Amino acid sequence: MLSSLKFPSLRHVAMSLVLASATAAAVFIPAHSAWAQARALPDFTDLVDQVGPSVVNIRTLEKVAPRGAGGASPDDEMLEFFRRFGLPMPNIPRQAPRPNRQGSEEEQPKGVGSGFIFSSDGLIMTNAHVVDGADEVLVTLTDKREFKAKILGADKRSDVALVKIEATGLPAIKVGDVGRLRVGEWVMAIGSPFGLENTVTAGIVSAKQRDTGDFLPFIQTDVAINPGNSGGPLINMRGEVVGINSQIYSRSGGFMGISFAIPMDEAVRVVEQLRTQGRVSRGRIGVQIGSVSKEVAESLGLPKAQGALVTGVEAGAPADKAGVEAGDIIVKFDGKPIEKSSDLPRVVGGIKPGTKSTVTVFRRGTTKDLAVTVAEIEPDAAPAKAGETPETKSKGVTGQVYGLVVSELTEAQKKELKIKSGVRIEAASEGSARAGLREGDVIIAVGNTEVTSPRELEAALAKHDKKKSLNVLFRRGEWTQFAVIRPAN
Fold first, then answer.
1. Which of 134, 214, 252, 414 is most buried, judging by how many CB atoms fall within 10 Å of its CB?
2. Whether 129 is catalytic
3. What predicted TM-score, i.e. pTM, was given to this entire model?
């Protein structure tokens, strides 16, 4: 959501100059020192001129019920802004709803993001979360031309989306070689943070191959990225895009010095599938895996801590049919070494379903090659539009004391999260919000009681003494943690 605040502009950057006195002796600066200083202070002006026209602003709209029919009010939108960015909640008096004059839906702004022109015929790359659930996508070029865009495909697992506008002769961006990218190298981002179009920020590559997801090794930078930068390009000093700015690490909702970009080589592979078939197909073999510690490797006789430890095998899955067993350590797949557990889903996911491959496992002191036929991961479900509730989810309100609204998890969601039980939080307020719970979290257990449905959660909460604190085991992203809901004063 775009804040109405205006931000001051940066007027100048102070530079210290070393001046030699006319009466002083001549001072000779080694050539390598001058070269080092020149490298330390790069000039991005030519890059901005070169790449700027390829970056676009993306606005999304959604159809909502009129305010008189239960739609969102400006106050609701302001409260949502404060909640999303972790700001103290203001005390806004509630206004009576206005009468509904018309029964038709109306379009309201949903979000602001960035993107860049991938091909001159109107293909534009952005993040999947930028266009997720949008009823209409509007793309604005740097020359102020605005187009309605069609979503050709979006892949939530990689957070990459491809949209198309009806235009030709556009300035397409050049794709760089991520393999040449080095830690410490200068990079630049252009986007629309908080809706401020054509904003340029710069920094260095902090790390490569950063594990923050199952299918993507992210590029970590210290480039200032904020809400609205999502989907914009990360550009090297040759004017080539090497990544799509996607995520930040933050405790406040704003930039805290760590940002992540999707490597362009991974993004291009996703886009090619989105362009040809509208979705991405990935391979799977049906195993649950964990990391291999140094102690485990030594006890098993592995030369070093490597591979993916199989902690479970799905019945009837390709791994089960191939003879993979719990306790095996997968050290290679299709000839590619598996150095750490996160390598396996990426390697398998990149193989076309139906392909016959070889999985190499370390079992009781020896290695074995097993033939396996890769299956396909279930595709993402289509995102629900505003006002729609999928029939597969039954929502339940757990009461005013805890302020939770939850829904059932589908089997596909459980597989994706690698859990067997739990309920998804659709809304959190009052005690649950104060405890830090929020929409999208998955409650696994309350009061040491496992829950698999909203009804079970209701029953567990009904038995709990409302005067005592309640511990909640929940999942957020890749992390499982505890929250404590304290009784109201």
1. 134
2. yes
3. 0.60
